[in-house]
Design goal:
The complex is a heterodimer of chains A (114) and B (112).
Chain A: E1 5-7, E2 10-13, E3 19-24, E4 31-37, E5 44-50, E6 53-57, E7 64-68, E8 74-78, E9 87-94, E10 104-105, E11 109-113
Parallel strand pairs in A: 2-11
Antiparallel strand pairs in A: 1-3, 3-8, 4-5, 4-9, 5-6, 7-8, 9-10, 9-11
Chain B: E1 4-6, E2 11-14, E3 19-25, E4 32-38, E5 45-51, E6 54-58, E7 61-66, E8 71-76, E9 85-92, E10 101-102, E11 106-111
Parallel strand pairs in B: 2-11
Antiparallel strand pairs in B: 1-3, 3-8, 4-5, 4-9, 6-7, 7-8, 9-10, 9-11
The chains are: A mainly beta (114), B mainly beta (112).
Chain lengths: 114, 112
């Protein structure tokens, strides 16, 4: 199977709830990065996972956390959801960490917080 | 001030027009410069990347980087309706941990 797949494609949550988003990386890729894209904005880096450990983090609070599994798939968890967390969440995989351009993006999960 | 600035548009052009998309940036450490295309309800797709200054051409697309001015451009020749999408510039460099810094995106519409 090729490409990056994300699930679910859409979901609606209530403020204060918790959410888990999932990502399967492209075959042969061992690094996963997560981005948040608010409406009308460019993606913002949340964090990157390599060999099941966080490899770098953007300017996001600790309620944003993640996991990477031995098969390189990944989860993004967001606790205590806020209205401003409404966005498209993108997963990108690459064949090595700290690559500057070798990313493949998934189609994203559209999260709406009400 | 954002690290990367991009005119959000929207930009509307007739089919066959030459399109110019631009970004400016403030971090002189950036060395890799990329253009992504994002169709509605899809993730970004890498169009072109350039290392350091210079030009790069791929079919109807030309990317230019001027590091002295901290300015990058993407030119689309003979634009087609299928080029209608949001175009995102992105940048990276050493010690960025693989993090890409994106511009806001420019929404382009090519009218038949």
């Amino acid at each position: 199977e090729t490409g990056v797949t994300q699930s679910p494609t859409h979901l609606i949550k209530t403020r204060g709830q918790q959410v888990t988003l999932r990502c399967s990386s492209q075959s042969g890729h061992n690094t996963v990065s997560w981005y948040q894209q608010a409406l009308g904005q460019g993606p913002q880096f949340i964090f990157q996972y390599y060999r099941e450990e966080e490899n770098g983090r953007g300017n996001f609070p600790p309620r944003f956390s993640g996991l990477q599994f031995p098969n390189y798939s990944s989860e993004l968890n967001v606790n205590a959801l806020e209205l401003d967390d409404s966005a498209l969440y993108l997963c990108a995989s690459s064949h090595r960490r700290e690559t500057n351009y070798g990313y493949t993006f998934g189609s994203g999960t559209r999260l709406t917080v009400v | 001030q954002k690290e990367v600035e991009q005119d959000p548009g929207p930009l509307s052009v007739p089919e066959g027009a030459i399109v110019s998309l631009n970004c400016t940036y403030s971090n002189s450490a950036f060395q890799y410069f990329m253009w992504y295309r994002q169709y509605s309800r899809k993730g970004p797709e890498l169009l072109m990347y350039t290392y350091s200054s210079g030009n790069k051409e791929d079919g109807r697309f030309t990317a230019q980087v001027d590091k002295s001015s901290k300015y990058i451009s993407l030119f689309i020749r003979d634009s087609q309706p299928s080029d209608s999408a949001t175009y995102l510039c992105a940048m990276s460099g050493p010690n960025q941990g693989g993090k890409l810094i994106f511009g806001q995106g420019t929404e382009l519409s090519v009218k038949p």
